[in-house]
Amino acid sequence: MPLTRRDRVVSTEVVFFFLFGAAAIGSALAVITRRNPLASALWMIAYFLMLAGLYLTLQASLIAVMQVLIYAGAIMVLVIFVVMLLNLGNPEQLRERFNPRVVLASALGALLVLQFLVLFVSRPTGYSTPSPRAAEIGSPGTLGRVLFTDYLFPFEAVSLLLLAAVVGAVVLAKRKLEP
Amino acid sequence: MTHLPLEAYLLLSATLFTIGVVGVLTRRNAIVILMAIEIMLNAVNLSLVGFSSYLGNPEGQLLVFFVMAVAAAEAAVGLAIVIALFRNRQTVYVDEVNIMRW
Predict the structure, then answer these.
(1) Tens of pLDDT along chain A (179 residues)?
(2) In angstroms, what separates the C-alpha of A179 from chain B's closest C-alpha?
(3) Measured CA distances, B52 to A60, A77, A149, B62, B95 (Å)
(4) Which terminus of chain B has a lower count of CB atoms within 10 Å, N or C?
(5) Interchain proximity B9–A79, CB inside 8 Å
(6) Which of A31, A45, A37, A44 is nearest to A84 (CA)?
(7) How far is B89 from chain A (nearest CA, A)?
C-alpha cells in the first residue's frame, strides 16, 4: 500500500511541475509587460507563489515557506509601498514609446532559450530522478544543522550585510539635512 | 512518466532568467527593473534547489538562503535609491536620468 501511494505522489509532482511552471512563465511575462507598475508588482507576487509551488515539487519544504514569507511577504510589501508612495499611476506618464530594443531583446532572449534547449537535449546531465534523500535534505532540521555548523561564518557575515543595507537605505532615503 | 529529469527544471530556470533579462533591457521604470532583477534571482534559486534535490546535497538550498538575504538587502537599498532619485528628479524613468553621464 505505501508503494502505490508513493507512485501517485511522484506523478502528481510531474503534473504540478507543468502547472506551476507554465503559471510562473506567464506571470513573469506579465511582470515585464504590464504598463502599470502596481500591476507588475501584483503579478510578481503570483510569480513568487508559483516558484514556492515548484520548490514543493522538489520537496524543498523549508525553502518554499521562506519564499512565501520573505519574497511574497516582506520584499513585495516594500515594493508595493514604494510604488504607492511615489504615486506612479498617472496614465500619460505610463505610456511607453515603442522601442525597437523590445523586438531585439525578445528575439535574442528566445534564441538564448533555444540554445539552452539544444544544450540540455543533446548533453543530458544524467540525473533523471530526484535523490531519495530529497525530502530529508529540504527539511528544516537538516538545513539548520548545516547552516549553524559548516556555514556559521557566512551566516554571521550575512547579518552584517543586512545591517549595512539597513543603514544604507536609511541614509539614502533620508531627506537632506539643512547645513 | 513518473519522474522529470533535472533538465526540465534547468530549462524552466533558464527561461525565467531570460524573461528577467529581457525585462531589464526593455523597461524604463526603475521599480520594474528591480522586479525583473528579482525574477532573475529567483530563476537561479530554482536551479539551485533543483540541483540540490537531484544531487542529494543540502548546500544548494543553503545558498538559496544567502541569495534571499542578498535579494532583501538589494531591494531595500535599490528602493531607497529610487526614492532619493524621485525626490531629486521627480521621475523614476531611467532614460530621463542622466546625471552620471559626462
Answers:
(1) 444 555 554 578 889 999 999 999 999 999 999 888 899 999 999 999 999 999 999 999 999 999 999 998 899 999 999 988 887 666 666 666 667 878 888 899 899 999 988 988 888 888 888 888 888 888 999 999 999 999 999 999 999 999 999 999 999 888 765 55
(2) 18
(3) 9, 29, 18, 9, 40
(4) C
(5) no
(6) A37
(7) 12
Lowest mean pLDDT among A35-39, A84-88, B16-20, B31-35: A84-88
The set of cell numbers assigned to B39 is 525574477
User: Using CA atoms, how far apart are residues B19 and B36, in angstroms rounded to an integer?
Assistant: 8
A51 and B42: CB-CB below 8 Å? yes
State whether residue A83 sits within 8 Å of chain B by CB.
yes
